[in-house]
Amino acid sequence: MEIIETVKTAAQFPSSLPHMHHLLALLLLVVAVCKLTALMVERREKLRNLEAFPGPPAHWLFGHVQEFKQDGTELDKVVKWGKQYPFAFQLWFGPFVSFLNIHHPDYMLTSDLFFVSLCLSVHFFFLGDGLLVSSGQKWFRNRRLLTPGFHYDILKPYVKLMSDSAKTMLDKWESYAQTSESFELFEHVSLMTLDSIMKLSSHFSGTNAYIKAVYDLSFLINLRVRVAPYHNNIIFHLSPHGFRFRKAVKVAHHHTEEVIRKRREELKKETELDRIQAKRNLDFLDILLCATVGYTILSDEDIRAEVDTFMFEGHDTTASGISFILYCLACNPEHQQMCRDEIMHALEGKDTIEWEDLSKIPYTTMCIKESLRLYPPVPGIARKITKPLTFFDGRTAAAGHCCKCVYLEIWVFDPLRFLPENVSSRSPHAFVPFSAGPRNCIGQTFAMNEMKVVIALTLRRYQLIEDPNRKPKIVPRLVLRSLNGIHIKIKPVDQQP
Question: Less crowded by CB within 10 Å, the N or C end of the chain?
Answer without folding.
Answer: N
